[in-house]
User: Fold these one by one.
Assistant:
Number 1:
Amino acid sequence: MVGAVYAAALLLTAGALGWTLWHGLVDPGVALAFGLLIAVGEAVRWGPGPAAAAAVPGGAGMAGAALPDPPGASPGASPGDREAAPLAAAGGLAYALLGEIAGVSTHHGILQTVTVVVAASLVGMVPHVAMGRPPALDRVACRVLIVGFAATCFQPLYNTGKLHEWLGRGPYYALFLLLLLVLTALCDAVLTAALARSRTGWPYGPLLRDKLRELPGIGSAICATGAVMALAVAVTGLWALPVFCLPLLLTQFSFRRYAAVRTTYRQTIVSLARATEIAGYTRPGHARRVAGLSLAVGRELGLSEPGLTVLEYAALMHDIGQLSLLDPVPAGATESLPAAEQRRIALLGGAVVRQSGVPADVALIVERQADPYREQPLPARIVRTVNAYDDLAADGGPLGGPLRALERLRLATARDYEPRVVEALARVLSRGAGPARAGGPG
């Protein structure tokens, strides 16, 4: 799928560049103004800096800092991420929907629209590449195709006068624009979810569902800003661009601050989870390995992004109750303890989690770790299974090792582990370096 998207974007770009070079730019001042807007939007997009990118193989997504990439994911893939350059996306959409400037008709057409969007996006990526950040080629490829789609649906009808002949300039015209924006947003969601599916191997349905859930938020803001800028320029001229892009730019900076707060919050949870390792109650890297594999299994089973966040926090803190023990359990494996003791440790862990300020759902998952799996919510079943796998895979005895650990989990599905979760774990491990990672050092 990645190859098909890139090939389509490259073919469209090559055709657009060739046509533009042959015929020249129509209204070059207008093209420069919108190109500058798109380039600035791309230049100020948020993303991890060089140090963060090196320390966070999974990018800035929910499985980010200090966790390994889920097995089967490619480095830098973060399909859960929202549009990182909303101003650039809105600028490209506005140029695609532009029909007039201060009452004077434009005739830049589809191919020039694509040319301006590609050139401006590449110029906007230069500062990021210079700072060591990876170029956002997936997003640029999607933007080229989506802008091309919007321009194809709008420019021919508008430039030939058919749009006003059929719909006039009243409510039907506004309804047409709204319908076109909805179709464009849906195409973008389908395309980005398909790219994420190809990059990571995660199920397409949950990825598409998460993308669709983003549409009422930043997606609607991008579409609305693009349409409003196009309509405002049609009435007042290019002076409308800086005025109407400011709200989205301020929203982008607000998202950046919110992302920074979430990153700090998550790093605090990671530090708290390491307390059991520092105190010698669990093996080094155990919490991170369990969290990384739990996220991969959760995606395999179709959990949404909010559910994955809760799952990750619970997986990081699932052993926090062991700090109440006077003598550490060997290697931190509590499966050998009596059921009553396991239950006590789980309840104490839940009490600690509730005091840490994380969502109550996280504490509930930690408290339910010792319950029979049929009575547990799905995230608790995932953490329990992955925790047992990591303990068994690290066993240096004759019954240890990744393959034997998975076999022992399958044999215990009648009583201790959810069969669906065990099979999802097996699929995750089969797609990459899961067994070695889970059994290796943190």
Note: The two ends are 33 Å apart (CA to CA).
Number 2:
Amino acid sequence: MRRSPMLASLTRHKLTVLLLVLQVAFTCAIVCNVASMIGHRTAQMHEPSGVAEDELVTLESISVDEHDDPLARHDSDLAALRQIPGVTSAVAVDALPLNSNNWSNGIATKPGGNAALTATAFNGTPGERQALGLQLIAGRDFLPDEYMPIDSAHDWSGINHVPATIVTRALAQQLFPGQDPLGKLIYPGDGPVRIVGVVEHLLRPTLDESAGNEYSTLLPLLPDTGSVTYVLRTAPSERARVLKQAGDTLIRLDNNRVLRHAQTFEQLRADYFSRDRSMIGLLLAAAGALLLVTAAGIAGLASFWVQQRRQAIGIRRAVGATRDDILHYFQLENFMIVSGGILLGAVLAFALNLLLMVHYALPRLPWLYLPAGAVALWLLGQLAVLGPALRAAAVPPVVATRGG
């Protein structure tokens, strides 16, 4: 079928065509960015934490006794918790992946140098790595004589004197690309800290939109405040019982304390990402509504044009055009309009993404979302125009003799 009659028809309805092109363009720009945000959030929600998620239970203990010795209290609490049947290990920690209790430090690779990046410092009692289930892929664990109190009463000065650290693979690769990180010195504080081990994964307590969500360090610093998180490892089927007995045990040892956030690690993860799941639901609803509005606009305009062109369609049928010719005519016309909107929408999509990157620190829009969005809009356009196009194809040749 020649395109010149189609182009002539479109140029006679410039404003209407322009409005539809703009509608498709804005839909393309918004839907591509929404899809990118959903994809990014979904991927983040499934990032491995590095810990044995299905074997851990946690509860926070807050002592209200101002004269209490935190280190002695933690030792006695842990000794009792390890006696609970089914508990394979128990440790006290100051933070966990996804628990939002984030202590970050700038990490430099030479004394007095500028921080190359920011990493989370995880601190805990001996056995923390094994209890959490962190996979050591290089080096060793901490030695008993490497542990020291955090000394939080003196502005966290422990980090200026700690001798060793275990880092994540992601952090090691960022600090020393292409090199063996074992034995290298880093500076999270004033003094040098030697890397003695590398773990595969360890998510930070609070995630952001950057690529540094696994920039983590384990330090042999003992939690030394009245507020501490106890982590117990047990079989998945024993978690509920162990969690209840742990709470009862701690209260029996000292009822002058507050226990909160008693939960499995899986519950901790679910709570952390609850807002993300809600946001994904809202974004899906908004994107779906926008696509429906666009489809309605395409279908409405096509129906209007079919009504206007009934006599012209009848004439074409009278001179030999088949129903398939009429159907394909409207489908091709819609394809051209939607394609124009997609081309403009691609430019708007990257412009919108740039604004989101600047103002909301969102990641760059992957280019694969554009062809995926284009295919979705082409299919949507063809489905929306199908009904009006079939009605146009059903116009009989006799309409040409009736004056419309």
Note: The longest strand covers residues 56-63.
Number 3:
Amino acid sequence: MSRKQEIRAEAARIQAIFAESGAREVEPDVLQPADTLLDLYGEDIRARAYVTADPLRGEQMLRPDFTVPVVEMHAAEGNGAARYCYAGEVFRRQEQDDPDRSSEYFQVGMEIFDAEDPEEAEAEIFARFAAILAPLGLRAAMGDIGLLIALVKGLETSEARRAALMRHIWRPRRFRALLDRYSGRRKPPAHHARLLERLGTLAPEELIADAGLIIGLREPTEIVARIRRLQEEAEEAPIPAHTVEMIDDLLDIHETPANALNRLRDIAVDLPSLDPAVERLERRMEAMRRHGVDLDSVEFEASYGRTTMEYYDGFVFGFYAGARPLLPPVASGGRYDALTRVLGRGRSLPAVGGMIRPGLVLELRAGSGQ
């Protein structure tokens, strides 16, 4: 049996376990319309996906993951509560400094669409993955991007600042730079200060009128709006230092889930906008215990998933080979309600899911002599 046949057989084995829970087996097309993925991720996706052009269907991409096409299929069928499982290849272009990582590999996964009890669905997904991967002795990690989202939405600052921070939650360096600027820890960029100094008492429209020929992609109205935003920001009061310290405390949490919950409760005393997210975490932990998950063996990281899980907006998790830190996650997943709102044709249904790399499962199993 060839290596690919072995991986396909392992994927089929895992998919059958998911199907036993009532998940419907689906197989989205390998070629996916590029416009949907470009709308979701912007032009950055081109650097990671294989793009081709069809004379009738326009730009197409080789399937970079399963979640997006499964959500689209679910929305098109107008289903309510449902669960799906899948297995097949995905295609990702790799960075030049990582030539050994495969650009074509198998994923097998499961997705649950259910608004009745979101925390129960999250616990079930995690428990099923943990049971399948238990023989490999992997390191399990989880987090909740919804905690940081709740804090940002509850900040006592302008809507424009909250919106800017929300856009960059999944880009930690940019998020930190904005937070430091809005709190006064960091000065605004020098070119902003020079522009405002030059503007003086002039209205932005006057500055544009005196500028002469405008060369570039931005319309004068866009430039004026941007200048007005900079003026408003310069006059805004900074985000209080103690609030930023609480955010720092949250992002620094790396504990067992029980200890993390206690620290989050302490933070929520000063930042009550965090309360609903903390309550969801507590309900999720209770559900995980009912499913037999040993939470003391799971690492909780408040920042987990912020650099690699762009469309997740709540519970996130991953399983890793601790002895081989250079390997990608053997499995990962989480909640992606925001994605269903974008792709749901005007309707939203809470959804959670995850995927396993059967090729890595076989590799680790062989290395352990199983």
Note: The mean pLDDT is 85.
